[in-house]
Specification:
This protein is 17% helix and 33% strand. The chain is of the alpha+beta class. The strands form 2 sheets. The chain has a 6-stranded mixed sheet with strand order 5-1-7-6-9-10, with helices on both faces.
């Protein structure tokens, strides 16, 4: 394709990731997972992963929580939609959907071998910054705001694209 020709994004769309994340809380704590596959130093974030082609986001999240953490989950309200631009050579452009998720009161996450998580841990809401950094931390903070306010928040790399009404 020459530089003068415009790419037909309908006929030849760019590859995109569709990620799903779960905000699972117990009182003042939330469930976080380490992802040692992302960098030499494990990064922490909300549990989830990538949806398969043609898989609905809430179905993907339910499946991933079962496969990776042996949790029977009820996927609730959408909290945030987070757009992440391409990082050439690292990852494709993507959109991440984070939902409020409920699990049985006595359920405890068990990291499975297939899950690729290093660890699952209940973390005090006020201590998420001790584990998560940068984009992951911003997304978690916005999920908590959305959960508190009942509003869906649109993000770009974890930052709100619009003012959130209180």
């Amino acid at each position: 394709m020459s530089s003068e020709e415009a790419q037909d994004w309908f006929e030849d769309p760019p590859p995109r990731r569709k990620g799903v994340h779960a905000l699972i809380t117990r009182g003042t704590r939330l469930l976080m997972v380490s992802r040692p596959y992302r960098e030499p130093v494990p990064t922490w974030g909300l549990p989830g992963g990538s949806a398969a082609a043609n898989e609905l986001t809430w179905d993907a999240l339910s499946r991933l929580l079962s496969e990776r953490l042996t949790l029977k989950a009820t996927v609730g309200d959408l909290l945030v939609v987070d757009h992440v631009p391409e990082r050439p050579g690292e990852l494709h452009e993507g959109t991440n959907y984070a939902y409020r998720v409920d699990i049985p009161v006595d359920a405890e996450p068990i990291v499975t071998e297939a899950g690729r998580f290093g660890e699952a841990r209940w973390v005090e809401r006020s201590a998420t910054g001790d584990l998560a950094v940068d984009h992951s931390l911003r997304r978690i903070e916005q999920c908590l705001i959305a959960d508190d306010t009942g509003q869906v928040i649109e993000l770009f790399r974890g930052l709100p694209t619009r003012e959130v009404a209180s």
